[in-house]
Amino acid sequence: xxxxxxxxxDQGTTSTRCIVFDRRGQLVSLAQQEHxxxxxxxxxxxxxxxxxxxxxxRLAPLALRRAGITLDQVSAVGIAxxxxxxxxxxxxxxxxxxxxxxxxxxxxxxxxxxxxxxxxAAEVQERAxxxxxxxxxxxxxxxxxxxxxxxxxxAERGEILFGTMETWLIWNLTGGLHxxxxxxxxxxxxxxxxxxxxxxxxLDFFGIPRAMLPEVRPxxxxxxxxxxxxxxxxxxxxxxxxxxALFGQTCFTPGEAKCTYGTGSFLLLNTxxxxxxxxxxxxxxxxxxxxxxxxxxALEGSIAITGSLxxxxxxxxxxxxxxxxxxxLARTVSDNGGCYIVPAFSGLxxxxxxxxxxxxxVGLTSYITKGHLARxxxxxxxxxxxxxxxxxxANSGLTLKTLKVDGGMTADNLLMQYVADVLxxxxxxxxxxxxxxxxxAYAAGLAVGHWPDLEDLRRNWHRAAQWLPAMDxxxxxxxxxxxxxxxxxxxxxxxxx
Amino acid sequence: MPGTVxxxxxxxxxxxxxxxxxxxxxLGEIAxxxxxxxxxxxxxxxxxxxxxxxxxDRVSGHYQLGxxxxxxxxxxxxxxxxxxxxxxxxxxxxxRSGEAVRIGTVLQGRVLVVHHVFRPDDTFQTLDIxxxxxxxxxxxxxxxxxxxxxRPGASLDRFTHRTVVGARELAADLDRVRxxxxxxxxxxYTVGEAAVAAPIRGYGGLVVGAIGISGLVERICDNxxxxxxxxxxxxxxxxxxxxxxxxxxxx
Lengths: 497, 251
Ligand SMILES: Nc1ncnc2c1ncn2[C@@H]1O[C@H](COP(=O)(O)OP(=O)(O)OP(=O)(O)O)[C@@H](O)[C@H]1O
Ligand SMILES: [Mg+2]
What we know:
The complex is a heterodimer of chains A (497) and B (251).
Chain A: E1 5-11, E2 15-21, E3 27-34, E4 46-47, H1 49-67, E5 74-81, E6 87-90, E7 100-101, H2 109-117, H3 121-128, H4 137-147, H5 151-156, E8 160-163, H6 165-174, E9 179-181, H7 182-185, E10 191-192, E11 197-198, H8 200-206, E12 215-217, E13 220-225, E14 234-240, H9 241-248, E15 257-261, E16 265-272, E17 283-288, E18 296-303, H10 307-315, H11 325-330, E19 340-342, E20 360-362, H12 370-396, E21 403-406, H13 413-423, E22 427-430, H14 435-447, H15 454-458, E23 463-467, H16 473-488
Parallel strand pairs in A: 1-5, 5-14, 9-12, 15-21, 21-22
Antiparallel strand pairs in A: 1-2, 2-3, 4-7, 6-8, 10-11, 13-14, 15-16, 16-18, 17-18, 19-20, 22-23
Helix pairs in contact in A: 9-14, 10-12, 12-13
Chain B: H1 6-20, H2 27-34, H3 38-50, E1 54-56, E2 63-65, H4 67-70, H5 79-97, E3 100-107, E4 110-117, E5 132-134, H6 139-146, H7 167-180, E6 183-186, E7 193-201, E8 207-216, H8 217-220, H9 229-246
Antiparallel strand pairs in B: 1-2, 3-4, 3-8, 4-5, 6-7, 7-8
Helix pairs in contact in B: 1-3, 2-3, 5-9, 6-7
The complex binds adenosine-5'-triphosphate (ATP) and magnesium ion.
């Protein structure tokens, strides 16, 4: 019998990956392509959805070729995607209308302020179990309808479709199927978390025509069969990338948590079939739903800027030429020299949610070298993790005993040690750095019977590395104090116009 | 001059120009001075840029000598870069072989462990990134020696009764490594343990590191005290996958 495989498409913020996994969940081949980031104004971030689809078309055969396998050996395709990024396209031609508005984009700031004042705002937030914020796609879609002449009318007539990235990809893969999954839908402000379907009242509130919305499906279910890129292969799953990572880390039991360190970093704690509402800056979100079963929920601590701070250090300051060199530079000094960087580039997300905050570098003296700055860059990621872990512990009543991590930044040994140091718990990396893709593959393989059940997947999880806390408690406390004072200095920077 | 390669001569001329000039030079300027077509010069500059010998200013598009030229004697690949770029291939190697994986480069006459993946059995293990190992007594070290990424030290310390301590004997061992394309250490560093390693190559085939597995000798070796061919295959596949990602062409 020839071996069979599952392929994942990980459509991320900076790049798209296509990864082939074997029966044991090990990576067999990988093809990856970055796409262009458009920053037309401060706070604006856009992608070209057509470019992203072209990349998927190119990467699919490449990944199979590198694995040395053919299409008939692929059991299923699973999709994980950057969340909340908003795409609008023409139903007839399939051409995107304008660029996709990316999750880091803050242009809806004043729109969101107005919406928060409008009657019904409290109910919208209650139904979606989400705050109204620039982070989510509902306000972005409203903004596009407001700023593209004639778009509202065309949308009413059913000529225009909305989707997050997985919807856009599935539409292109299948030649016209218009669906989303519950995890992505739970990030729009438009979903009713009790029915797991679009809320007619919330659509009214935003003035968004129902006709442009995709159908909401469970995350783990056969969504359709591909005609393009993987012709004939079933699409077995779609999940937001962070939910996919939770799945890839096999955090299937309430109380299990992971943190993924990529462009931003996201700590998700499985809360089981109960949706837990947060009163200290965490988000309630759908973790996944297997077809025919109740949805599982998670509490999420979202950090907007972590890996992208390293990228900023590389591309804008040009102090390093590759991201991993940040560690080399940071190791030229033994501490931060009193310098702290708070990367509130898109305001601050969890647990502060301050859209008017902007980044600061504090503690500068003539003593500070680029080595200290590099340390401060890495430490910012660790302290931001500490803040969301504290919120998580307070909120869930559980105390995190170890942190499971994944994502590109986990290759940074100095950073992972520092995360363990400031959290004062062991940090563990599983034997699969590309956990987002793995989760999408697991979910898709589960849907088509490639893997029998969650227990089978759990057996694939193994510890690949572990960092144990080794920091003096006094130092930890004083550094955390300094970090908090630095964070306060980012507040109230952008003044209302 | 039979046997000279024209494009290398031209590359050398370009580097001399950039080194001698007062600052950055434009493509047109370089082409005119050397009396070459712009397309030819551009191709050479792009190759030199790829290997880090030339850098291009993002704003003006002008060229200057690259930082890599200043560090010709040291390793051109940052060790943290090497870890980042091999992590996706080291994990499957550990999963398939069931053994711990390490990646090493050379630091001051020893093997520097730059990446370590635990043996995937969920027992307690400690990360030893940053540890230094002897070159002549480890599979990783022998790979680095065999491909001239390192030179053997003056005195070859003995760790077990099987450690190769004679210079002639070691040279013969390294010949075999080059011929086979992989190295072993069977109870040469620690009694009861064995290891297999293969070279990681960068552009042009240059060996920049070694990747290997290590574990109990009865798991790594068969009853003739030879490493299982299956394990050797996994190690070499992983080494090739990392090399391909680093830009080594055919290896
Ligand atoms: N060794 C390192 N040290 C610090 N940061 C690193 C290191 N290697 C990569 N990064 C950072 O990690 C990020 C890449 O990680 P990863 O590949 O997981 O993200 P991603 O999946 O591409 O993100 P997205 O899905 O949002 O596009 C980059 O922002 C990069 O700057
Ligand atoms: Mg990602």
